[in-house]
Amino acid sequence: MSISAYKLKDGTTRYRVRFTKPDGTRTDERGFKTKALAGKREAELKLGAAPKANEAPLRAFKPRLEKRLSRRTPGTQDVYLKALTNHVIPQWGHRRASTITRQEVQSWIDNEGYGRSVATRNLSLLKQLLDCAGVDKADNPVSYIDKPDRARREKLYLTFDQLETLASATRTRQHEVMVYLLGTSGPRWGEAAGLRIKDLSPNDNTLHIWQSASVVRNEVVLGRPKNGKDRWISIPTFVKDMLQELTRGRAQNAPLFLSHDGGYLRRPKGRSWYDGAKKRANKIDQNIPTQLRIHDLRHTAASLMVSNGANIKVVQHQLGHATATETLDRYSDLFREDLSSATSAFDSLFSGGQDVGTGHSDGAV
Questions:
Q1: pLDDT value at position 353?
Q2: Which of 86, 118, 163, 283 counts the highest number of beta carbons within 10 A?
Q3: For 141, which DSSP code?
């Protein structure tokens, strides 16, 4: 066994432990922030972590975790099951839970080159697998693992005029209405695609979001919305009028938006109606980016709601976020005017004869 230092791309020093596996092959574990931590791991490897008596390998708990995952939406379930089968079980399935250390898990994440989202998903699966194996929450080695930095992607927002240009650049009435719905009211694509005609209230400007349409292995599958809860969202009057016109004479149980085969509409990918609409809209207004994702229409809806005075709880409800904190975290850049208002309020509060430097008003102690 040996310990050696190496450099990351940013110049940071890390340490690796080289050792021989039971099958005689040489390998190493990397990512130790200090030589002391590497030394501690070296000592563990020398002693050899022994599994508990009659402890089953982690692959034995895969069916239990698959049952847990069945509560997820079909699309999410499919992604997680693939990751479990292709990433987590091949790496950890042969191991006993009591022999896995935090440093091994950290080394796995550091060396595989996963992006932030993939690392987060795979760590979640391993943590749940260990939980299924009976590992206490406090002892779970997946806790406190350093994840890769999140790739920063600027949110793209359209003005209402730009949204109107994009909607007009579609070539069917259905696609035009879909762009307006996503860009003004903010449902997720799957939530909008999963709507039925009966989900449009005849009494007011609301839509019932209660299911989501996802494509799983090239088949459209219906499931619950992302957070598992249904909700009613508000839509502008002109969007309701367009929806009623679009669906007139059709059965109430039929999809609100129809695919070519009469089923639920699939998310546009590649050279699709949406891709064509973006390019045509960009020729009219070059400030409409051709890299605009369909999900950016949801961001646009959040921006339009905030700019028109909607409070954070309304935006949270429309978007289907679990908490207002989640909404604020995702759209903090939209609430800069609130900061300006706070600045004005502070200026008014502290300008009335107060010495801001000392925190005392005139004549007061």
A1: 44
A2: 163
A3: T
Same domain, 3 and 108: no
Distance CA 34, CA 171 (A): 60
Tens-digit pLDDT profile for residues 43-83: 766 655 556 667 899 999 999 999 999 888 888 888 999 99
Q: What is the DSSP letter of 232?
A: E
For 90-148, how does the pLDDT look when each residue is reduced to its tens digit (9 = 90+)?
Answer: 999 999 998 888 888 998 998 888 888 899 999 999 999 999 999 888 788 898 888 88
CA–CA distance, 272 with 278 (Å, rounded to integer): 10
| Termini Cα distance of the chain | 68
Q: How far is residue 220's CA from residue 238's CA, in Å, rounded to a whole number?
A: 29
Residues 6+ apart with CB under 8 A from 355: 361, 362
Would you say residue 94 lies in a domain?
yes
pLDDT tens by residue, 152-211: 677 899 999 999 999 999 999 999 999 999 999 999 999 999 999 999 999 999 999 999
Shared-domain flag, residues 98 and 165: no
**Domain membership of residue 240 as a residue range:** 160-336
User: CB-based contacts of 263: which residues, under 8 Å, 6+ apart?
Assistant: 220, 255
| CATH code of the domain containing 138 | 1.10.150
Query: Which residue shows structure tokens 């045509």?
Result: 280
106 with 17, same domain: the answer is no
Are the C-beta atoms of residues 289 and 156 closer than 8 Å to each other? yes
